[in-house]
Design goal:
Helix content is 50%, strand content 12%. It has 280 residues and is an alpha/beta fold. This is Transcriptional regulator.
């Protein structure tokens, strides 16, 4: 672990202090932004923006950086201070998970990754590992994600509609067998009566939800809230006018997507294009 440094004279404004610490740690390690990005599996531009104070990223990025630099939670603490409220993100996410379990129906749009409720174990493990998790924590998070799939199971499971950007299906796992299992799982999920899957082709172009993962959760009382993720943070949207704007955007995206039947054909074709692993 790097020795503690005297911080006298350093910025005490949380966001700026976080950026300064990131920049200093990287330079002490003698890494370029590109090398850091390659080591942790994120785009180097993200770390550049974090060091310039343009963004603070998400807690999972801070945790991965703590592990990378051996700073024993220092960066996550600074991230929490920069975020304004140390428990704000975690409380919002816990609230979202509760609403997901209680939802009467769910609608979702995926930008780059399959929703957690669709993820096979190999896919979830690869995705979480790319985010910097390993060891016991990785195993724990994979098990937790597998448990989320129960939301769509059972006779009283809520209706679930998802629109998958074509990019989701064009980003395979490095392990061909695991990618095949994931696509097979996706095909089988589509066969459930409460699940509707549509694919948004790349030819649809830019739209109102570009780069914005969105989940709508409708409660038994008819009230709808939304969970919006932009890659490095999440926000629970509850204000009625804001939710309605997101719903209008979602409706427009749905109009651009392939029909459920054509989407199923698209997924099956993608599965058929996966090369066979000669070692199996």
């Amino acid at each position: 672990m790097p020795p503690r440094r005297v911080v006298t004279g350093r910025s005490q404004e949380p966001r700026r202090r976080f950026a300064e610490e990131l920049r200093l740690l990287r330079r002490q390690r003698g890494e370029s932004l590109r090398q850091l990005g390659q080591a942790l599996g994120w785009d180097a531009s993200l770390f550049g923006k974090m060091e310039n104070g343009q963004t603070i990223g998400g807690p999972e990025v801070a945790e991965a950086l703590d592990q990378h630099y051996g700073t024993a939670g220092l960066l996550l603490t600074l991230w929490e201070l920069a975020a304004g409220d140390p428990t704000q993100f975690k409380e919002r996410y816990r609230r979202y998970m509760t609403l997901e379990q209680e939802a009467a129906s769910l609608w979702h749009y995926a930008v780059a990754n399959l929703p957690g409720v669709f993820q096979a174990e190999g896919y979830a493990r690869a995705l979480l590992a790319a985010g910097g998790l390993d060891g016991e924590e990785l195993t724990r998070q994979v098990e937790a994600r597998m448990g989320r799939r129960e939301v769509l199971m059972g006779d009283d499971a809520p209706p679930f509609r998802t629109i998958l950007s074509e990019a989701v299906l064009r980003t395979p796992l490095g392990d061909t067998n695991e990618w095949r299992k994931q696509l097979e799982n996706l095909v089988s999920m589509r066969e459930r009566k409460n699940v509707v899957i549509q694919v948004l082709p790349q030819t649809a172009g830019l739209h109102a939800l570009t780069n914005t993962d969105t989940m709508f959760l409708r409660g038994a009382d008819g009230r709808t809230v939304a969970w919006v993720e932009t890659g490095y943070s999440g926000e629970l949207v509850q204000e009625t006018a804001s939710v309605e704007r997101l719903q209008h955007a979602y409706d427009a995206v749905r109009d651009l997507a392939l029909s459920p039947a054509d989407s199923q054909k698209f997924i099956i074709q993608t599965l058929e294009e996966v090369p066979c692993d000669p070692s199996t």
